[in-house]
Predict the 3D structure of the following.
Amino acid sequence: MEAGTAAAPQYIRRESAPARAWSWLREHGINIYAGLAIAYLLIPIAVIIFFSFNNPAGRYNFTWVGFTLDHWRNAFGISELNDALFTSLRLALFATLISTAIGTLMALALVRYQFFGRRSANFLIVIPMATPEIVMGAALLSFFLIINTPPLGFSTLLIAHVMFCISFVVVVVRSRLIGFDRSLEEAAQDLGANPFQTFFRVTLPLILPGIVAAALLAFALSIDDFVVSNFNSGTTVTFPLYIFGAAQRGIPVEVNVIATMLFAVTLVAMGLTVLQQRRAERLASVRPQQEGE
Amino acid sequence: MTARRRVIPYFLLTPGAAWLIVFFVVPMYYMARLSLNTGTLETGFTFNWEWSNYKDALSLYDQPFLRSFYYAGVATVIALAIGYPLAYAIAFKGGKWKNAMLFAVVAPFFTTYLIRTYAWQTILSDQSPVVDVLKALGLASSGHVLATGSAVIAGITYNFLPFMVLPIYASLERVDESLIEAAKDLYASSRSAFVKVTLPLSAPGIVAGTLLTFIPAAGDYVNAFFLGGANNKMIGNVIQGLYLTQRDYPAAAALSFVLMALIMVAVFIYIRFAGSEALMGEEAVGA
């Protein structure tokens, strides 16, 4: 290419090599930096997956010894780990259902209505998100210790998880509600729908993506929680609590295997949600054009 | 009809607000009371305005306190140094890679927090090639990285980096690029366009990101547990130990309150900075 035009290469050659390197770096430096930052974010995940195939010599899975699939075959062979995982899943499921339901109602109240105490309600929602988890966990434990009921265990964990999930559900559903076209509801009511029909046939389907996103976030927060659970679990063991307990005596490789599985499941769930949302957006984008015709 | 409309929001609000009041606000009051108790687990605790719990807690545990704020502060600065350029690259240079890059930022959340920290234990263990490299560069003179303050800071930085990147990305994404072009048309250099236009417009994201990183980092004890040694205990480790092992509830409650108070100060400064609605907005995008 360059050989064809005689003058151009001569002109380029006049810039010194360091100057060219400098301008190239100025152009691409930020991308290289971002690439390194992304590598930093992803390397630990790679390490977890990589070491799920390790065959460690001792109790500690820190040094690469050799490749084996034994721990993948034995993934569900440690009964305490299975119990912990099952407890976590059950807890996350209940916490998600409760926090999504009451959080959605709160979001509706805050977006749809002007009322006395709205600012205080907003404040009540922001404060738990701005509180360090350890303070939340410690306060709740103090409360349970003093009122002495219910006994620390699954029920106290559920109370705690719903508590810290609510705010996040409200924030996510709220952001979906803010961009909501109220004329659709008015149209439904003009066509004779009562408030309940309007809500279940029009409002709910339209804000459903927001509710699903909020539920997924609540589930992720609950299943991942360690600090608040650590304080309020009593003798109940969740998946993160199992890892914490096992850390002293060496975390079994099966934990890496299950973490890899959870990662893969989340990846698939995330992919499906994105696809679903793209489809919903495509469908939504068709509507105005039809109206215009 | 209007009277009915007036009570509807309260109906919608009640279950959630009640949950937050009973299981968040009221427990704070109980913890405050507990922090002014005297006694031990054997003799029982009694409430008698024992303010000395606060004095004792601070004089006994001033070191872990300072360490917590130091580690959290350093980690926040490093996270900003890594996170801002990354967010900038995603917002302005991402192109077709934008979604993939955003995905990479949230990918760590797909693994459990404890597992991520445990992965760093593997990466920084004495046998790890990373540590060999650091040794060769003369950065790990003692031969260890694990069980040092640097390891704890590295872990905290890693674990809270997405909380830094996402709000900054959100505010950069909202920057109207025609403003930057206008600055350049008015003969601003790339650098001064950045300093005078882009940077101020992304300030809310920086404030949100630094708080979302600093607040959880200051109360964290998982990183210090997995990556630190006996000399790297943070205030979270102390509170956890006092509550769950030594069962010195009054001292633990007092410490939690001091931590809470210091963090509240930071949040109020923030709300003055950007307004509570802005905080909610950033949170929504971060989520």
Confidence is low (pLDDT under 50) at residues 1-7, 289-293 of chain A. Chain A has two domains: 11-70, 79-251. Chain A is about 75% helix and 0% strand.
